[in-house]
Amino acid sequence: MARDYHVDRVKSGIQGFDELIEGGFPRGTTVLVTGPTGSGKTTFGVQFVYKGVELYNEPGVIVTLEERAQDLRREMKAFGWDIEKYEEEGKLAIIDGVSSVVGLPSEEKFVLENNLNVGDFLRYLYRVVKAINAQRLLIDSIPSIAFRLKEEQNIRNVLLQLNTILLEMGVTSILTTEAPDLAHGKISRYGMEEYIARGVILFDFMERNVELKRYLLIRKMRETKHQMKKFPFEITEEGIVVYPSGEVY
Questions:
Q1: CA atoms within a 13 Å half-sphere pointing along the CA-CB vector of 177
Q2: Reduced to 3 states, what is the DSSP secondary structure of residue 171?
Q3: Using an 8 Å Cβ cutoff, are 13 and 30 in contact?
Q4: pLDDT averaged over the chain?
Q5: Measured torsion, CA atoms of residues 55, 201, 169, 120, in degrees rounded to the nearest 10
Q6: What strand order describes the sheet that includes 92-96?
Q7: Which of 38, 87, 188, 245 minimizes the number of CB atoms within 10 Å of its CB?
């Protein structure tokens, strides 16, 4: 039976991807992007936030817990993305969650202090989102939150609290995590991240002619019709490009 209500969609800014999800993510949803190291998770998340500002005038926040903000900016310049420009305009904010952990001073505007608890982290995140009226959010990554907050034993409670505050803020969010053992069906580090997210996108590699190629699979997307098949994508000089026809390989 056809749906009789309208779902407000947020365009991803990722070429070819929105065709797979009825035109975009449901607004205010939380999407988990999972996969092995090097599969493109961070690039996907940053592209979602950056293009939100560039193409749709939707401010965004990036919480970087795996690499320093300055390194992230430099890497993303390879795609022609001038993150600093939008930071200066107050449309994009990067929260540096790395420097204090490794004992380095940070010159960033938004910095997570060391020895934070979950409540401190969530309150700080809420303040930064509200400060720039962000509509998009990337948290990279969930295992780094657990490590950062020394909360691996209580990761379920951390994720539930995080999900609650994301819903309260109304932002459309991408959370990244690791998929350590896809061959045996383990699609996330803790085995529970996928249950708090309203969408789950799996990134992985396939071998074609003795070469590894990237693909994605939409495992779950609430309020959205989608196919359960593998779609190839490439990381080009302009960012991620998805091929909905699946014919590139």
A1: 29
A2: coil
A3: no
A4: 91
A5: -120
A6: 110-111, 92-96, 60-64, 136-140, 172-178, 30-35, 199-208, 211-221, 230-236, 239-242
A7: 245
Q: Which two tokens stand for residue 219?
A: 């495992």
Per the confidence metrics, is the pTM higher than 0.85?
yes
If residue 155 lies in a helix (H) or strand (E), which one and from where to where? helix 155-169
Nearest to 140 by CA among 238, 33, 25, 26: 33
- The first and second tokens of residue 237, run together, are 């000089």
Beta-strand ranges (E) seen in 49-125 are 60-64, 92-96, 110-111
Q: Are 135 and 58 in contact (CB under 8 A)?
A: yes
The architecture that CATH gives domain 9-242 is 3-Layer(aba) Sandwich (3.40)
